[in-house]
């Protein structure tokens, strides 16, 4: 155990243990619907990611997994009829991922919804979310991991009266894009 970890407060240790227990419960629920936990994570990612981020490479970054592992996950989801892969319009070497109607229907029964409801019932969902996001960013920073935060919190996001704009990619953004997560996101 490193010294820096030992200096964490009692409350911080308690929070870390609670996150671990919640994660264990989530893993157990992650075999519902005939999927495994990683397949559920990939489905959720594709549902939440913007059009610049629905690629196998970005999914590998999000999951902190190898391209080979992600490829196997995507083959399984495609075989179950839950996602489809198309060639990217901008880069023919890159694939773009999309949910099928079956994938969207399965996400209506996402086992993670139960945890989201439990968090809502604490009455502090926004505070819990902000705290966990801060902890995740700190955990990712030394590993060079990407935060994948919502577009509207990115320093390149330019809010408009109607449409919004990405100053990094020079692309228009819709209200739906503003809520989506992005592989290029950098905290404002
Ligand atoms: S504003 Fe940031 S998060 Fe949004 S599309 Fe551009 S780079 Fe991605």
How would you portray this structure in words?
- Helix 3 (37-48) packs across helix 5 (67-79) and helix 4 (56-63) packs across helix 5 (67-79).
- Strands 3-4-5 form a 3-stranded antiparallel sheet. A two-stranded antiparallel sheet has the order 1-2.
- With 188 residues, it is mostly helical.
- It is globular and about 50 Å long.
- It is 51% helix and 10% strand.
- The mean pLDDT is 93.
- The structure holds iron/sulfur cluster (SF4).
- Iron/sulfur cluster is lined by residues 50, 52, 151, 154, 156-157, 166, 168-169, 182, 184-185.
Write the layout of secondary structure elements.
Blueprint: H1 3-6, H2 10-29, H3 37-48, H4 56-63, H5 67-79, E1 83-87, E2 95-99, H6 101-107, H7 112-121, H8 125-140, E3 157-158, E4 164-166, E5 171-173, H9 175-179
Short recap of the structure:
It is built from nine helices and five strands. With 188 residues, the protein is mostly helical. It starts with a helix and ends in a 9-residue tail after the last helix.
Helix content: 40-55%
Query: Based on DSSP secondary structure assignment, what is the total number of beta strands?
Result: 5
Distance between the ends: 33 Å
| Helix and strand run | HHHHHEEHHHEEEH
Structural class call reads mainly alpha
Radius of gyration from CA coordinates: 18 Å
What's the pLDDT, averaged over the residues? 93
Count of individual helical segments? 9
Shape: globular
Summarize this structure as a short list of keywords or feature phrases.
three-stranded antiparallel beta sheet, two-stranded antiparallel ribbon, Ubiquitin Ligase Nedd4, Chain: W, 5 strands, 188 residues, binds iron/sulfur cluster, Arc Repressor Mutant, subunit A, single chain
């Amino acid at each position: 155990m490193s010294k820096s970890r030992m200096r964490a407060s009692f409350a911080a240790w308690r929070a870390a243990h609670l996150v671990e227990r919640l994660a264990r419960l989530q893993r157990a629920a992650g075999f519902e619907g005939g999927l495994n936990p990683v397949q559920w994570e990939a489905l959720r990612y594709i549902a939440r990611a913007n059009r610049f981020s629905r690629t196998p490479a970005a999914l590998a970054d999000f999951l902190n997994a190898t391209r080979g592992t992600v490829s196997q996950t995507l083959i399984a989801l495609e075989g179950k009829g839950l996602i489809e892969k198309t060639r990217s319009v901008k880069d023919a070497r890159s694939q773009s991922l999309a949910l099928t109607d079956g994938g969207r229907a399965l996400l209506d029964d996402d086992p993670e919804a139960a945890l989201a409801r439990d968090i809502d019932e604490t009455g502090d969902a926004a505070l819990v979310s902000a705290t966990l996001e801060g902890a995740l960013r700190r955990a990712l920073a030394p590993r060079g991991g990407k935060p994948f935060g919502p577009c509207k919190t990115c320093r390149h996001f330019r809010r408009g009266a109607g449409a919004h704009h990405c100053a990094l990619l020079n692309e228009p953004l819709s209200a739906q894009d503003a809520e989506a997560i992005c592989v290029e996101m950098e905290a404002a």
